[in-house]
Design brief:
The chain is of the alpha/beta class and 330 residues long. The chain has a single domain, classed as Aminopeptidase, CATH 3.40.630. The chain is built from 9 helices and 9 strands. Strand 7, helix 5 and strand 8 form a beta-alpha-beta unit. It is globular and about 50 Å long. It starts with 10 loop residues before the first helix and ends with a helix.
Length: 330
């Protein structure tokens, strides 16, 4: 069975596949729904997401021992077509039951969320909406209004405190209902989920980049020569390295995940799957309009080739295994 079937064309399809993979593996997930929505068709990468508006969902699943002191955090890239690539590799890993390979003292947190496009604030409710999937082991499913789970309630308090201090009717970026503030506060909750008993954590974020389609690069998010940079080199050998213009920065780090890990020792890296091929470049015709340009760029940075997707899933499987083994040895 081809691993490419686990990759998606729309945010809705990606989320459905992720939740189905969690259910098949008997793993609970916690849903977070952005309080902002986008107009129907805006940022839509393909058919299947029509409607009065879309919302950005981030689903978080934790698997492995609840007492694990080592935790690997696997994230989709949060911007553009990269989210589909990350979604596909996470779903593939789950669907193949690779979690059974985890060492006893290593847990995994999957952060899955494909951003459907530019979001706009709507509605009066702050907090994640209830979803029909299985309740996660880390807490009860929150109701549509208010957060009853202890972890989510703490996040809501921080959210509202931030809103009181920073919201301004003239500055949309400071609106507590904006997607930017919502996702930063959500990552505080994810930090709580990760660090229940963790003393060591590893962040792996999956992206695509404009290198050869056969290339897979692992970039350290740490200063060259540091302990953590050396750790990544030890785990991956010549495959890994630091970018010439400085350490790589993962989206999750930009959202201050490291700050929210409660002192756990974090080793962070960005995985880049190359997408470039001469054929793909030559196939790009001048775009007819903005929508056409967006779709063409997405195909460029998220190849439709089943072989490319199969290779990305297999490479990701190997990378996750090495990270788990590296954490176990710490």
């Amino acid at each position: 069975m081809s691993l490419s079937q686990h990759f998606s064309k729309t945010p809705t399809e990606a989320r459905q596949k992720f939740l189905a993979a969690c259910a098949a593996a008997h793993i609970g997930s916690t849903p977070f729904q952005c309080p902002a929505t986008i107009p129907a068709g805006a940022g839509k990468p393909g058919a299947g997401d029509e409607g009065s508006g879309q919302s950005w969902w981030i689903d978080v699943a934790r698997l492995g021992s609840p007492d694990a002191t080592r935790v690997a955090v696997l994230c989709c890239g949060l911007n553009g077509a990269e989210g589909y690539c990350g979604s596909g590799v996470l779903i593939s890993w789950l669907a193949e039951n690779r979690q059974q390979e985890l060492p006893r003292d290593v847990a995994v947190v999957l952060v899955h969320g494909v951003n459907p496009g530019p979001l706009i604030a709507t509605g009066p409710t702050i907090g994640p909406a209830a979803a029909p999937q299985e309740v996660a082991s880390i807490g009860a499913a929150p109701p549509a209004r208010g957060w009853t789970d202890k972890v989510l309630a703490a996040a809501e308090r921080r959210f509202m405190e931030y809103a009181k201090k920073n919201s301004s009717p003239t500055d949309a970026a400071n609106n507590p209902r904006s997607a930017n503030i919502w996702i930063e506060k959500i990552f505080e909750s994810i930090g709580d989920i990760v660090t229940k008993k963790a003393t060591h954590a590893a962040l792996v974020e999956f992206h695509t980049d404009f290198s050869e389609a056969s290339e897979v690069s692992i970039y350290s998010c740490h200063k060259a020569g540091s302990i953590h940079d050396g750790r990544i080199a030890e785990w991956f050998g010549s495959v890994s390295g630091t970018q010439s213009d400085g350490p790589a920065v993962a989206d999750a780090l930009l959202l201050n995940l490291e700050r929210d890990l409660g002192g756990a020792d974090l080793t962070a890296m960005v995985v880049e799957f190359g997408v470039y091929s001469t054929r793909s470049i030559l196939a790009i015709d001048p775009p007819k309009n903005t929508t056409d340009r967006r779709e063409r760029y997405q195909r460029l940075f998220y190849p439709e080739s089943a072989a490319w997707r199969e290779n990305a899933a297999k490479e990701a499987r190997s990378i996750i295994r090495r990270v788990a083994q590296g954490l176990e040895a710490l």
